[in-house]
Amino acid sequence: MTAPGPSVPKPPNVSALPALLTRSARAHGDRTAVREGTASLTYAQLDDRAARFAALLRSRGLRPGDRVAVALPNVLRFPVVYYGTLYAGAVVVPLNPLLKAGELEFALRDSGARLLVAAPAGADEASAAAARTGAECLVAHPPAWDGLLRAQDPSAGAAAGAAADDTAVILYTSGTTGTPKGAELTHRNLVTNALTTARTLLRLTPDDVLFGGLPLFHAFGQTCALNAATAAGAALSLLPRFQPDRALETLRRDDVTVFLGVPTMYTALLRAGVGPALPRLRLGVSGGASLPVELLHAAERELGVTVLEGYGLSETSPVACFNPPDRPRKPGSIGLPVEGVELCLFGPDGRPTGPGEVGELAVRGENVMKGYWRRPDATAAAFRDGWFLTGDLARVDEDGYHFVVDRKKDLIIRGGYNVYPREIEEVLYTHPEVVEAAVVGVPHPELGEEVAAVVTLRTDSGPAPEALVSYVKERVAAYKYPRIVRIAATLPKGPTGKILRREIVVQDDVSRTGAPVTTPSGAGG
Predict the structure, then answer these.
(1) Does domain 412-503 sit in CATH 3.60.70.12?
(2) Whole-model pTM?
(3) Nearest 5°: CA angle at 114, between 113 and 115?
(4) For residue range 99-158, what is the model confidence (pLDDT) as tens digits?
(5) Superfamily for 17-392?
């Protein structure tokens, strides 16, 4: 295991994301910026292509502040579109490329995006969504894409000079009620979080190679992989779809030094068998969901490196808390607040709690979002006296290390992806035979949580559980649909008639991933 390199010097006067790329292009132009398989772009090439994409946007009438939606997997075109949009002064709206037309349509309408850049595999869904909203859809077919960029003048794509407090990215997120909300992250939010990650947490140097298997449409992948690597002049090895054998191939072929993943990625690697040592690997990082202590120790044994766990949300850019590499590590802890960030725990009475007491985790600092896009009520509800309320319950020990103990919200985290129960319930309610529906998370040994649905039907001859699984599967992204469906006579309700998800208990061996329950059963244990 190689030791972490010296921390990256903080570049002066870097207040906007495009400056991270332009500085690295000047200082490390011939070094590899991103790889995808055997293809790669140097920093000079990435800078040139981003400028050409910015020129393309301007030629199509997009102005600073306009929104550009990006539904691409982890391919070389993603950083080109991401930084090119920012060069043009526009706002990036990253979207999961697995989303269906209806899901894309909501994000396009809500953000007011004028352009959607989509992958060829998602062209039909993207085109349908764009047609319904009046947005332009640009499908990034590699040969045509290359020709389109070559035809642009890079000098027409010079960075627009965004201000630090201008919105750079809108990330769609949600609680368990209402429609998804767009978290407005400013250039200052993202630059400071990326620099902190690169300098003090990962301690990156231009010789580092980061594993790029985390989705770049997610805050974790954007900040800790793409922007942190760019800030340091390091290389990012992209993997469009995580598969353990492909991941191990990438780690070996590209001499990866820092592995960034969610707990399910570590589980998959261990199941596949790491095999020969990875001599260049020096650090593992886990986020997105709680990392079981046993899994942490097993990963460290097999990979031969220290694995550090952190915590954050889309609204916090995302890194808020991290186990620092130069301090004692406490397995099971999310660590200490990072530079420029404060944490506080509030009890039910709204007062800060003491050491060892459980309270709602709140965050304040340079990483906290501007607010929810065009949702002043939701923004006001999310803050208390300048503190962002996470909805997570935690405790802090006498050394200042934080431990998340539960989630206040009913959010389901399946394999590192957020699944919002109400969204799935609304799909179930569109089925003519469904009377009531409740979606809950149930423990899963590999994914952390599995999505389960309990429904009541209009007639005894209504659809079988398998049919309801298929019904939802056709309408939402693959990670969202319930693998477990149970039919109940009634659902538990409160005095006002509200369905009480917390009183629903789904008892089943959920290690049988993918197998829906076929025996009708009541809810509530």
Answers:
(1) no
(2) 0.84
(3) 95
(4) 999 999 999 999 999 999 999 999 999 999 999 999 999 999 988 999 999 999 999 988
(5) ANL, N-terminal domain (3.40.50.12780)
